[in-house]
Amino acid sequence: YTQWLKRLLRQEYTAQQDRFLETRIDRAKLPERWSLLTYPWAQQPGADRRVIEQLAELDFIARGANVVFIGPTGVGKTGLASALLLKALHRGYRGLFVQAQTLFDEMYTTLADHSTRKLLNKIARLDILLIDEMGYLNLRPEQSNMFFKLMEERYAAGRATLITTNLDYDEWYAFLGHKEMVAALLDRLRHRCTTLRIDGPSLRTPQA
Q1: CA quadruple 111, 114, 117, 122: dihedral, nearest 10
Q2: DSSP states of 141-181 as a string?
């Protein structure tokens, strides 16, 4: 009877953990459940597998460090960043996947009902945040200011952020607009950061 009860409790515990994981994944809004095990390493020589698999140990989250993937469209930046986020969710971390355009639009929308502080609080305290497709967007000064505030608060709280972008760091000045603010942002972002530049072929093979 004791062994049967132990098995029953273990099964219940496992089922509960699975439910918690699914809840974290749903809340993270991951579009795809990419994994490093299925990443086409052979097709992308530009990706440093050794460094990425080391990042997959997730020590960077505990250190509040950032990871920035830089490269042209189609090289697999989103897949790699999403795989790291998914692994973090499996480890019990709370995270969010959001496209940069969606994030900036949502931040601007909060100005109308004065809910900016509520949104920043919600995102700033996440264990890990993945901002996808940072690029040349048409931003208003208010959006740039709110983004700086968000990144400043995540830096101060020691929260990890993943960013995928086709812009190198010196191009962020034209993208975000305010030279002094961007300099301060990059200073915080790169203080504890691994930058991975993927210079390789597109993984999006044209269909015949």
Answers
A1: -80
A2: HHHHHHHHHHHHHHHHHT-EEEEEESS-GGGHHHHH--HHH
Q: How many angstroms separate the CA atoms of 105 and 84, rounded?
A: 25
DSSP readout, 112-125?
HHT-HHHHHHHHHT
Q: Are strands 160-165 and 66-70 parallel, antiparallel or unpaired?
A: parallel
Query: Which tens digits make up the pLDDT trace of 59-69?
Result: 999 999 999 99
Q: Under a CB-based contact definition with an 8 Å cutoff, are residues 42 and 203 in contact? A: no
Contact 58, 187 (CB under 8 A): no
Give the tens place of pLDDT for each residue, 104-138.
999 999 999 999 999 999 999 999 999 999 987 88
Paired with 96 in beta bridges are: 129
Distance CA 24, CA 85 (A): 11
Distance (Å, rounded) from C-alpha 127 to C-alpha 161?
A: 8
* Torsion from C-alpha of 196, 27, 59, 189, nearest 10 degrees: 50
180-189 mean pLDDT:
95
Q: Whole-angstrom Cα distance, residue 165 to residue 68?
A: 8
The token pair that represents 179 in the structure block: 């030279």
